[in-house]
Design a protein that fits this description.
378 residues; TIM Barrel; globular; 15 strands; single chain; Urease, subunit C, domain 1; alpha/beta; five-stranded parallel β-sheet
Length: 378
């Protein structure tokens, strides 16, 4: 057993209640909170520390400071060391991984102890942060996201259309091109075999790829249902990149659990999500980052032109989701040097939903989305 940690005189942020506890002492053993006792209950604490199995813990006096759970970001791309995703997917594998290390370290130093990667990270990175090989948060990897030919995730230029997609051999490729029900079933099985904890599909057009306008629909309903069915067979679920109300409704109708972005949602789509128990993962900070820094950081002109079509409706989407009672988890979706702006998403959320809801999105609600509410987030 490693040396424990005893935190004295702390006030715990109870995220589900949105309130602070009375002053308390916490004993942490083997990386987990073992016991919580009121700070004025010295006798219970003394008996606890006198147990034969307890090594003398390191003590920290919080001096009435607030102690909160580690933060959870449910939409990151830890391998995205640059904005131009087409070029990113052509990086040498070792270089791509080395450039990921400061991204992961930055996340955990900002307080994000858990992240759900939305395309790119695999089980090897999960293992490396879990066993302490590298410094970084706990990772829930999606492996490579699934994109149809010409969809969001197909980074080939139009002139490259007859060339095979190289997305399956480069570490930093965030997506793979897969078409057809049978091929999708196999791809889902492959990603899960490689350690994906959930499956990401591209259900609409997007900003960062060259040939898919925002209003495009990704995949047929039969293809989406195939992905959902295979994920469910493995006790997993599907998260879907979807901007428009039409794309959102198709995805939810097919059983998708998590809608990523959702900027152009309408009342009907939000109501469908609420009825189905689907989560929304808005990622509003990335649009400000792309608009302000994208050109200088190499974002392609075609992508720059798409930003405003979704940026303006982002704040309104928060109101629509909240009104319908849709559960929202925290997401950032930042690329390249803009990863440093991760915590700015809190300010954006709080300006519309309030501070408590913004924190819950990155703690208790995010943990529910990950199906880890008994382990994380509170």
């Amino acid at each position: 057993m490693n040396q424990g940690i005893l935190i004295r005189n702390a006030r715990m942020l109870q995220t589900r209640k949105g309130s602070l506890s009375a002053r308390c002492d916490l004993l942490i053993e083997d990386g987990r909170i073992n016991t919580i006792v009121p700070s004025d209950d010295g006798e219970t604490l003394r008996r606890l520390l006198e147990r034969p199995a307890v090594h003398a813990p390191k003590q920290i006096d919080a001096e009435d400071a607030v102690l909160m759970p580690g933060l959870i970001d449910c939409h990151v791309h830890v391998l995205a060391s640059q904005m131009h995703l087409g070029r990113l997917g052509r990086l040498p594998n070792v270089l791509a991984v080395l450039r990921t290390l400061p991204i992961l370290e930055g996340m955990i130093r900002r307080g994000f102890t858990t992240v759900r990667d939305a395309g790119g990270a695999d089980d090897a990175l999960r293992q490396a942060t879990s066993d302490g090989t590298i410094l970084g948060p706990r990772i829930f990897p999606s492996g490579r996201a699934l994109s149809q030919t010409g969809g969001h995730g197909d980074m080939r230029e139009r002139s490259d259309v007859i060339e095979p997609c190289g997305c399956t051999v480069k570490v930093a490729a965030i997506a793979r091109v897969v078409d057809g029900v049978d091929a999708i079933r196999k791809a889902v099985r492959e990603e899960i075999q490689r350690g994906a904890t959930q499956i990401k599909i591209m259900a609409s057009g997007g900003v960062a790829s060259p040939n898919d306008p925002i209003h495009f629909l990704g995949y047929s309903e039969d293809e989406i249902r195939a992905a959902v069915d295979e994920a469910d067979n493995a006790s997993s679920y599907v998260m879907a990149h979807a901007y428009t109300a039409r794309a959102i409704k198709r995805a939810v109708r097919c059983g998708v659990r998590s809608i990523e972005h959702g900027n152009l949602v309408d009342d009907e789509a939000a109501a469908m999500m609420a009825d189905a128990g689907a989560f929304a993962v808005p990622t509003l900070v990335t649009y400000d980052a792309l608009a302000n820094e994208g050109k200088a950081l190499g974002l392609p002109a075609a992508s720059l032109a798409k930003i405003e079509s979704v940026r303006g409706q982002g704040m309104r989407s928060l109101e629509i989701f909240a009104k319908a009672g849709v559960s929202m988890a925290f997401g950032s979706d930042l690329l390249g040097p803009t990863h440093r702006l991760q915590s700015e998403e809190f300010k954006i959320r709080a300006s519309v939903l309030g501070e408590a809801a913004a924190i819950q999105a990155a703690t208790s609600e995010a943990a529910r989305l990950l199906r880890c509410e008994h382990e994380l987030g509170d």
